[in-house]
Amino acid sequence: MGDVVRAPWDAYFVTGYDACSEVLRGRDWLAPDFAWQERQADTERWEAVATQEMTKTLSRLNAPEHTCQRRSLGNLFDRSTITRLTPRVEEHVSRLLDELAEKLRWGEADFVSTVSEQLPISTIGSWLGIPPEDYAHILEITHNQVHAQELLPTKSQLAVSAEATFQLRTYFTELVAQRRANPGNDVLTGWIHTWDAREPNRATADEILYRLTMFVTIASLETTATLLSAMVELLMKEPGRWAWLGENPGHIDAAVDEVLRYDPPIHINTRIAAEDTVLAGVPIAKDSMVHVMYGAANHDPRRNEDPDTFDVRRGGTHLTFGGGVHYCLGAALARLEARTLLTQLLKRFPTLRTVAPAEYASRLVFRRVTSLSVAT
């Protein structure tokens, strides 16, 4: 239908790889922030509690506020940080695979609840100093909150998200307060020192700290869990592929990237035209919404030949982590978790197989695998 296609509402779908890349990386495309929302005729759509809360987070901010908060975080997962985190991630993976092995002794096991969802919360939780006994609660409210980030959420979904948003605010506000009272050798303590030096108003600093901590946490969970589940299923679909990768572990990084290309955890991201412009030959008026379609872009045959074939040895490219100033903060961490998990899985479970296709939640934007039964 074209690289830019009119949506049934007042917006456009962007499907071509180059057009999507231009939107993600271009300075003329903005996140749908409060300033834009206030200029819309249908303001009711943006007044939901959860929507308002997410609009305050890093992914919905534009310069200069985005620049200020982004710089305060530094390069979250640079090479040295990933090196320090690697042994911890390896420990988490080993522990979770011990639990998987125990369950598999009795037959089938659900890979999602046992491993995929537990690894991201264990990793980010230990990094931020979140007590392990709170992990299940964080996972539950994250699953519920993400409804507000759908393309066209229903009123019932927004109600569920509103309650989850309240619980997230309560939890992470208290976490910041506790860490302020009892500083530790952790990332959150470092952020507190940074913002205390930058912002003289303690209440303002704590509000920013709450939003940063909450956003980094929830952004690390749903997407990475889906990546891990999709990775296992896709690598087992073709007979012999799992065994081949076990014999050729040098292709593990390429396999992770092919999973990210083939079935990205996020399918849609929205941007706003800062000025009247032309995108792939289509005139776009100022303030118009465009929806970047990650899956479509990654399957553009002009960028990846034979795109609907899953090929570990492809060496292709993808836009799954976005681009420009909003490039995914946790890309390196997600790759570390996926690479570490896949490496240990291939060694410990060479005969692992899926019992049934993965089940997905009914969503347009944030993919979520709800179950994946495996056996040996």
UniProtKB/TrEMBL annotation:
Keywords: Heme, Iron, Metal-binding, Monooxygenase, Oxidoreductase. Coiled coil: none annotated. The keyword Iron applies. The keyword GTP-binding does not apply. PANTHER family: BIOTIN BIOSYNTHESIS CYTOCHROME P450 (PTHR46696:SF4), P450, PUTATIVE (EUROFUNG)-RELATED (PTHR46696). Belongs to the cytochrome P450 family. This is Cytochrome P450. It comes from Streptomyces pulveraceus.
